[in-house]
Specification:
Layout lengths: L3 E5 L3 H13 L4 E6 L3 E5 L6 E5 L15 E4 L3 H13 L3 E9 L3 E7 L5 E7 L3 H4 L2
Parallel strand pairs: 1-4, 5-8
Antiparallel strand pairs: 2-3, 3-4, 6-7, 7-8
Length: about 130
């Protein structure tokens, strides 16, 4: 249903470097870009994309209150690694990796412009892990 998610930035060059390095850890690469305006990444042409852009009205970009992008990870270890990579790249911590309830494992961060995102994976239920 969702084709892509876009977040604004006030420093496109820094945002591109941040997301090039971070999203590469998910197997994503650039699939569309317009110089000095935006870059979009995806893992394949059939999957939803993620885009960072200078706001169309050229006003200051601001992170939305209650807005978040979720990136699917392969495992809890992958969530841990992605969160660590984001912090290494200058993101701020919004919630350390760990279980949230019985089936959801996630970590939260904010990018260089304050946009909130998470990495998550679903944990097997007791019934799924029983032999």
């Amino acid at each position: 249903m969702i084709a892509y998610q876009t977040v604004g930035t006030n420093n496109l060059k820094a945002a591109i470097a941040f997301y090039d390095a971070l999203l590469a850890e998910l197997g994503a690469s650039r699939f569309m870009e317009e110089e000095d305006v935006f870059v979009a990444w995806a893992t394949s042409p059939e999957t939803p994309g993620f885009c960072v852009t200078i706001p169309y009205d050229r006003q200051k970009a601001r992170a939305g209150n209650g807005v978040m992008t979720a990136f699917a990870a392969k495992s809890p270890a992958h969530v841990d690694a992605l969160h660590a990579k984001a912090l290494e790249l200058g993101a701020s911590d919004e919630g350390k990796p760990g279980p949230r309830g019985e089936q959801f494992y996630a970590a939260y961060a904010r990018d260089l412009d304050g946009n909130k995102f998470n990495f998550f994976c679903m944990l097997p239920t007791q019934a799924q892990s029983a032999p």
